[in-house]
Amino acid sequence: MTQDSTTARRALRHLPLMVIAAVALAGALLLRDAISFEALRAHREALIAYRDAHYLLSVLGFTALYVVIVTFSLPGALVATVTGGFLFSTWPGVLYNVLAATIGATLIFLAARWGLGARLAARMDEGAGRLRRLKSAIDENQWPMLFLIRLIPAVPFFVANLLPALVGVPLRRYVISTALGIIPGALVYTSVGAGLGAVFAAGETPDLGVIFAPHVLFPILGLCLLAALPILLRPYRKGRGL
């Protein structure tokens, strides 16, 4: 294989991730105001009328737009989640939100793994010292770590999408943990969207900080603790030879 062909193959592997990065940058500069609560407020009557007249097309269009937003890390993912509740109620809105977010997260995961993740994970496996120990610790705790980065509200969604691809997480494990791990947050914000009509009628803005309210945050932290138990108990189990 010639050097030129090797370079071309490497460039091809990086192309999806480069496209995602370019679109994300353009979206951050151009779409900040396009996907917003102000835009939703201005077009809410037209959106509701279209949903009532073409429900299936509304679901498909909403899901496709949400997938694009997540795949390219565009601004407005949180607005999209709330919009899912506004248009389709808490149920089945949360189902559409979780489905679309999982598909978009999986696409960016695949792009990152194809471009960088596979080689980086292989180098970590072949490494020595601290790098090898770090990779071994990650491999031993993949399930709890995957759930933790989804459940902890402070972890940015795009970080939780990219990080697993860079440490060699299997696709099936990533998809399952993503779909299940985002349910609590999606349920909270979808329910906020379900009450958005009354908020708009009162001329107010939805409270997106509700996830940090004690009655919401404490159960989520409880789930985080439950997800972290295997990591916390592993040294004890090793000491007991279990």
Order of helices and strands: HHHHHHHHHHHH
The overall strand count is 0
- Termini separation comes to 49 Å
Oligomer classification? single chain
Number of helices: 12
Which structural class best describes the helix and strand composition?
mainly alpha
Overall domain count: 1
Largest sheet: none
Beta-strand percentage range: under 5%
Helix content estimate: over 70%
Spans of 5+ residues with little confidence (pLDDT < 50)?
A: none
Shape: globular
Radius of gyration: 20 Å
Features:
mainly alpha, 242 residues
Mind sketching the topology for me?
Elements (H helix, E strand, L loop, with lengths): L2 H28 L6 H17 L1 H17 L5 H12 L1 H37 L3 H11 L1 H10 L5 H10 L4 H11 L1 H12 L1 H6 L12 H26 L3
Helix pairs in contact: 1-5, 2-3, 3-4, 3-5, 4-5, 4-10, 5-6, 5-8, 5-9, 5-10, 7-9, 7-12
Question: Explain this structure to me?
Answer:
The structure is a single chain. Helix 3 runs parallel beside helix 5 (about 90-125) and helix 5 (about 90-125) packs antiparallel against helix 6. The protein is mainly α. It has twelve helices and no strands. It has helices at about 5-30, 35-55, 55-70, 75-90, 90-125, 130-140, 140-150, 155-165, 170-180, 185-195, 195-200, 215-240.
Quick structural gist:
The protein has 242 residues and is mostly helical. The protein has 12 helices and no strands. The mean pLDDT is 81.
